[in-house]
Protein 1
Amino acid sequence: MELTTNLSNADIAFGEAQMDQMIKDRPEFARYVSKHDDVWQFCVRAFAGAAIGEHIIWNNSLPENERYLADHLGPYDGHPGYIQIRKNVASGDRPGRPLTCEELWSCAVFELENIRSHRAFLALYYRALDGKLSREEWIRGCSRLEYEALKRTRNDWVKLWLPLVAARHIRASGYHWGANVPETYEAWISRYWDPNSYPWDVFGDYFDKEMAPFVKYSVARRVGR
């Protein structure tokens, strides 16, 4: 996603309005980042349409899964895509801890990178519904898309975040931005082994609750033909 993407003035105004509301809902965003900074403008333009070719909205509601700090939903059935980010940590060792400025920005950038894969996600979704992907293939396909988004976020950290914090003499943590993400999906996914955690708790749970009944119907209908 390049900052030079061609957008109309109306698009930019829409993106700025989303940013204004996000800052209003999560004031910590603005602790040491201003609208003149590249990372701010990156998000403005992503909301405006640079990420997926159409508007994305800021959603002030909280992600359903308490383990995760942020989430997104791609555009679907005429509804615009959105991102959402917690204000406070909901689980773990310090539940209730406010997210730091850097955590908030890393979440925003990651979800805006993540939502770029919505068309690929839909392709996986319909293949799975048609019985052409197993549950495990679905999980691996979706997690691979998130891995690619994490690598793009790592690049954004280098281009957008490190120059900002260096200029303001602020300590930064690459951990929030995927700085240590392995170079291959296989090496990255091998870090996850608990079937009650990522990626099974996200994509496996969704498959079981939202997709499996329709997959069975689709397969049965094809067999019946």
Protein 2
Amino acid sequence: MEKNKSVIIIGISSDIGLAIADRWLRRGWKIFGTYKTLSPEVKELKKDDVSLIHCDVSDSSSVHKAAGEFKKICQAWDILVISVGLLKPVGSFNDSNFDDWDNSFKTNFTGQMQLVHELLPTRRIKSNLEPCVLFFSAGGINNAPVNSSAYTISKIATVKMCELLDAEIPDTRFVTVGPGWVKTKIHNQIIEAGLKAGESYQRTLEKFKTDDFTPMERVLDCCDWAVNAPKKIVSGRNISVIHDDWGDKELERKLAEDRHLFKLRKFGSINS
């Protein structure tokens, strides 16, 4: 494990963002992050010498301002983590306010890509291990979850964009990690929506009742593996914390040999 890495975490105030920051701080890595709300947990990060910048990812001017401030305080980053997520609006597309739907897409995709675009010039290029941009994905790639279309389509777009960025930018790694059901505050948006969330409402209540969640430690272990794996193994791919044998040498061999594995592909074509 390399030392003295510089890491920017967009959405460091999220539960996963906070957990990543805590683990990597204990390694002596230099952490920078953005927040939308200055919560007590975020304030605690300042005591650990974490450099914090306000950023509303849905606001392009806020994104541009934050990117400019990062360029002043972090001249070269090794890892860029995008840990921002907004489930709202919860409900059918037809019944949703489109401005809310559009804001969700900006938060979950467009604003994040603007940050990546503005911060890529300050990535640290190394010969042994390229800089890494780490995104988080969600369900919806292999089915059609209802009543969360803005969030779902944003995450699917992120998965494909990750592959496109990998193809266009050979000196940088781009990877998405699907954490599964982690016990984080984002699920409160489903509970608040109640029956408007459809089946997701009852499923979320059951998850909390049985405490059936992906352990945060497992998510962090997967992130560690992803940011330290070679480009040919992880870049352009969507890795599931729960369903994939990440870290397994046989799987890594298959990934290195097959450029289509763990990527968004059409299923069921006659000639596929």
